[in-house]
Amino acid sequence: MSSSDQYRRQVMRDLAQGDTESLDNAPADSTTEYENFDDFAQRSTHDERRQLFGRSLNHDNIPANQMEPELQKAIAQIKPNERDDVARAFFKHFKQRGLDDRHLEQQLGLSTHAPNRMSADDVSKLASFAYHNHPDIFREVLAEQPGIIKFLSNPVVAAILGIAAAKWLGRHR
């Protein structure tokens, strides 16, 4: 078992036993409980995810040298249609900032600017660019496309799941 799996299990054990000291700022909505991350991703609202990820995913706390390999692994593991959705979401937000998809294709060395033809490496480059240069866009895309989070394995990044885990466990503490 990898250290990140052990870390996740420990976080879940701590939360199950009521150890929520790091969750002081988490919303206290005990009416919503989630069975697992997929349930959370499907039933939680976009605003709820934005609030949870915005508070727990602090750009300054996770260095790029740790986040980039995690993003590459995570994006490589999501389904191709979900990867297309992630790429579309990044391009949509970049376009709102005045960044053209063809310009980004050239600047980042992407194989294409068409989301449905992008490789996992291309989408990883978009995600890394957003993480470095537009952390608010990065968090927004994670809130829109939370499937990426479940594939992040670095123990530092696994802490992102802590607040969401508190929602899953709800009244079980």
Give a topology summary.
Elements: H1 3-16, H2 37-43, H3 46-56, H4 64-77, H5 80-96, H6 101-108, H7 120-133, H8 135-144, H9 155-158, H10 160-169
Provide the descriptors you would attach to this structure in a database record:
mainly alpha, 0% strand
Provide the low-confidence segments as ranges.
19-31
- Strand proportion, as a percent range, falls in under 5%
Order of helices and strands: HHHHHHHHHH
Q: Specify the helix fraction band.
A: 55-70%
Helix vs. strand class: mainly alpha
The end-to-end distance, rounded to whole angstroms, is: 26 Å
Number of strands: 0
Total domain modules: 1
Average pLDDT, all residues? 74
Overall radius of gyration: 16 Å
Shape summary: globular
Number of helices: 10
Sketch the major β-sheet: none
Task: Please describe what this structure looks like.
63% of the residues lie in helices and 0% in strands. By secondary structure, the chain is mainly α. The chain has one domain. It is globular and about 45 Å long. The protein starts with a helix and ends with a helix. The relative contact order is 0.23.
